[in-house]
Amino acid sequence: MTGKRKRGGGLGLLHHAKTITGNNGGGLRTGKSLKPQQTRQIIRRFHQLQKNKHAILTRLRQFYDISGCKYEVIKQDKLYRESFNSFKIPAKYCDNEIYKIDSTLSRSDLVEILAKIDSEIEQRGGIEKYQTASAQGQTSKRGGDSSKKLIEWLRTEKYAFKIGNDVTALEIGCLSPRNAISTSGIFTSVIKIDLNSQDPLILQQDFMKRPLPKNKTEKFNLISCSLVLNFVPSHEERGKMLKRITKFLKEPKDDNSIMSSLFLVLPLPCVSNSRYFDNTQLLKIMESIGFEQTFYHEAKKVAYWLFDWNGKLKRARFSKRELHSRSNGNNFCITI
Ligand SMILES: C[S@@+](CC[C@H](N)C(=O)[O-])C[C@H]1O[C@@H](n2cnc3c(N)ncnc32)[C@H](O)[C@@H]1O
Which residue of 117, 269, 305, 327 has the fewest CB atoms within a 10 Å radius of its CB? Predict the structure, then answer.
């Protein structure tokens, strides 16, 4: 495999992706303060590359035995290292182009594309750059910290009686230890975790690998999952994350006196412009794992939900099927 193939041919390169926002990207630049359009481009490109990477790793499993398919093992592959080191992001490169991963690709094709994706992510500044872009989107000038909406809801009568002396929270995908969840004074403790911590007050941890609570004191009254599910690369894993969240929530009481809630935020197009998903489907999935919506708010670009957990999990299955035939729709989906 030479790796010298024309763009648009060989190696599944490259075709235009339908992004969640439906916009095309331009070039990315580095720099401390990013313009809103640049932050959106960085976030979008990062999500595309992550999705591609996940598809490649899934396909690669068929070529390796389980132990050989470990990512760390693939990264030692000579072809991987050569492709990683030689890849340069083309000067004229549309950020909306993605690799086409299909069954025609051989093992070496897949390893080569994986190396190019990893190289592109590194050249673009890695997950840190993505997080900077996300954090800048959180500044008050840019519409701000999504957890303000949560605090506004928790201060309503509906929740006032559930806020006692010992109310705890877990924030999955935390970029700032100074956001409204942490500064509201509502919670006695807020455990903040992220795949890539940007602050000593944020624990570096993959929620999917966080040890399950051993007793009720290790469970939380509130879990925040804001703009995280759309970061998770596959619809199956998004469903798994939602189910896993239930294992970390305090047991609800019949009189509803205990807070056991989930704050969820998604980019609006996930529910407004997907071929495979919408708000009705989300609510069906949530209901099947015991969540009842208490608040919903649709902003221009983002949708917010607050759910109470009733502890009742049903044996329901939700697969990926077309719900809306939208030629410009995105492919966001959650399955269980
Ligand atoms: C777009 S940022 C959202 C940040 C913030 N919650 C907000 O609402 O703006 C997504 C963050 O989720 C984190 N993340 C994604 N999957 C995660 C996981 N499995 N465990 C912990 N953090 C995760 C990423 O590292 C990233 O920093």
Answer: 327
